[in-house]
Sequence to fold (574 residues):
Amino acid sequence: MIRKVFKINRKVERTLFILLGLLPAFIWFFFIMLYPIFMTFKKSLYDWNLAYAIDNYIGLQNYKDLLTDRIFITSLINTLYAVIYIVPATIIIALIVAVLLNSFSDRIREFFTPIYFLPVITSMVAVGLVWRWLYHPSYGLFNYFLHLVGLPTQAFLMSPDQSLPSVAVVAVWINVGYFAVILLAALRGIPNSYYEAAKIDGANSWQTFRHITVPLLKPSILFTSIMAVIGAFKIFVPIKIMTDGGPGSSSMVLVLNIYKQGFEFLEMGYASAMTVVLFIIVMIITIVQWKFIKTDY
Amino acid sequence: MGYLKKLTFSKLLMLMLLLLGAIFMFLPFFWMVISSFKPTEELFKMPPTWIPKHFTLNNFKGVLEAMPFWRYFFNSVMVSSINTIVGVFTSALTGYIFAKYRFKGSNILFMVILGALMIPFQVIMIPLYTLMLKLGWTDSYYVLTVPYFFDIFGIFLMRQFMLTIPDDLIDAATIDGCSHFGTFFRIVLPVVKPALAALTIFLFMASWNSYLWPLITINSSEFMTLPLGLGQFVYYRATQYNLLLAASLMSLLPIIVVFIFAQKRFIEGFALTGMKG
Fold:
């Protein structure tokens, strides 16, 4: 009898535990994620402006407008350029840094790793300001270096041609340590016996790298690449701080455009339609990721 | 000496490359520190001086006069701490339930959460902002904390770690008469301590450096965090680099100090979250 009561109590307690554990999570999840996602899709079909209190259903008009919106198309192209500038550079440099770090003793590795990693933990707002000063057309350190080697002054962030690549350099700088650390962890996971076997077979260091390190690192490289691609598609803070999309709209990117439409012009319906475009892009990348990397959850 | 002999030419070249890269990585920080101790006239000078000729602390004084730095700092510390403590706890609890309990619909629920993992914050920010507006939460601590109380990635990460806990351990606790709550607090949490530490660093940094969400929801400087306050500062003093650089240094210093003392944990934590993601 007592045993039975105890058992029932345990069952009740189990249910209570699950319920108490998950209920707050689902209330949060519903209001903070599910409902907003649904609303983003719904409101992308509305002419919705907070400033003028307009909220009318207009079907696909927002999407039609996007097709002829020069700034939107520019922002989309610029975002693609940002991905092209940032991702390969980040991954290749991170891989080089990881291999270099891995080829030295613990002491040297432990000395250099934090230096490469330091930007990762810093606020993009603060370091963005510092980079703006480094890029300064008249008093910046980079232009001073160019003078030293006899090259002409560059406008960097003030130049329509250079603004986006200049910001991309900062994006690479801030993230390279993060990816290097992930790749370094993967490198250190490769059993030493593989390298010893290669050595016995008479492979030189390039052959070892090419035929042992790279294939074994492939999943990590792919994973970091996709993370970098998604990150680059969502680039916002460095651009907001360093150029605010300028000069003109030479460094206008998708998320900055969404921010400006939604929170400066308060055209929230139109901004929602842009957000849906961003969502679709990220979704496609994620599906591709699932196709490439089969992780078992 | 023996060590030096082993240092072949190619190794030396690699070391030089590593050093060169490290100098480039560190240069912005170095230049920020040097520049923020220079008086304005010296700052706007070509060629620049590598060491301040007229060392000054006026820029820092100027920052403290021009912006409520300590208020921003207090807000950042408080908001990030609350978000981290709550976020780590909820991630662990939710992750544990998803890892170790089977009940009706548990798989479907987890799939829904997994699906949400790929949704960028930007996709929800507009309706979330209007929801906060309706609740009257904009320009308050609510808007800076409640949306951070759960973290989808944190739940996923903790579930992965909880899966590695042997069922026998949990069963043994149950047989000993430990309640489900008791098992979670006394048995499970201590076992996953390394994962908790990693998630703590990850969530704290995410909250500490958060910029876009505070930017759209906070207007009064009473509730501004460091990144947001600094961002506003840029907006109004775009060309006063002496103040901007000093303010950057002041806002970076706390986290850099913490990093110096706990850099191994930071790096391991980030590597862990990266690999499991």
